[in-house]
# Entry
Amino acid sequence: MNEIKKIVLAYSGGLDTSIIIPWLKDRYPNVSVIAVSCDVGQTTELDGLEQKAIDTGADKIYIEDLKREFVDDFVFPTLQAGAKYEGNYLLGTAFARPVIAKRLVEIAIKEGADAICHGCTGKGNDQVRFELTIKAFAPNLKIIAPWRIWDIKSREEEIDYAIAHNIPLKITRETNYSKDKNLWHLSHEGMDLEDPANEPQYYKKGFLEIGTYPEVAPDTAEYIQIDFKKGIPVALNGKKYNSVQLIEELNRIGGKHGVGLDDLVENRLVGMKSRGVYENPAGSILYKAHELLEMLCLDKDVSHYKRIVAEQFAELVYNGKWFTPLREALSAFVTTTQQNVTGSVKLKLYKGNIINAGITSPYSLYNEEFATFSADSSYNQSDAEGFINLFGLPIKAHALMKESLKRKE
# Structure
């Protein structure tokens, strides 16, 4: 332990990292703790963070604005891939971790630190996501994970430790949900949610922070139009936004109409199942719009194969393997598929629903003359007979073989 003189700590100011600073000071004599807080859209959670870190023992703190990098380099490439873990989870926590861990390494190298510390539990996915990214950029840097070595066993004991060390907390034992918030989502875990039989307390004051419950959403629907260029959303209702602004505005509009609420039980990387409630208004809207536009612009073979790629992409992101050759290769494939995914999608938002209200694209592969039920001159329906005879030849050959065997019996 004596060789560790300087530690970079991934600092959120939440329960875990708040008590880690004094714990590190106790465990490593004369150590310098550098807190690093990365802004990926936590909003008010960052208020007062600098002073709190210093007051609880940090020697220095960095507050890094990573919102644009987070969205442009992680969120939108995952959106283009159409990647959803287990078909539902929009990866809000998963792809926030590599951008944070990458900056931790950069600061650790700049400061000449001996180790990086994180507050992830030994049961969770985030420990893997942080540490795989650290290994990708600084394979020899020591990693300290207090949850895997200290005597504290629960969030209740963490609160006891905080009280004993006069560490201010924003939560109480009654509001002790484990939450993760960024531009893309807000997750809720723990407490009553640990029993899948319990309905989430959507109506409880302070539970939902981004959106509202569909039952109390406005009784009037709202139409929005999202413009895409090569699979990237670039404008909302005719107005251009940068990537961060667009997500913020969609969270506001979608949250108002109660869209993007998900109650999921997922399979964690470490093998256990966990239940979480997610607020994902902007993400749900953008995934729906992107899927609709691809429906118009991708040919059958690309569309079907891309679903396989999306599943593999989601597995890699969920498992913390963003900085790997396979993820980079899949992204190269995805980028190629997005060259013609340009156009506009109109959606109707109403009480938790996201309804298709029209799609247009200069690259649309939909041909009304081919698809029409009315008279047309572009499609010769008699051509289908020859196609079916060839397409069904293996089936016919199999049937003839069975008939031949029966005659021999």
Summary: The radius of gyration is 26 Å. The CA atoms of residues 401 and 407 lie 10 Å apart. The first strand starts at residue 6 and ends at 10. Residues 300-318 form the longest helix (19 residues).
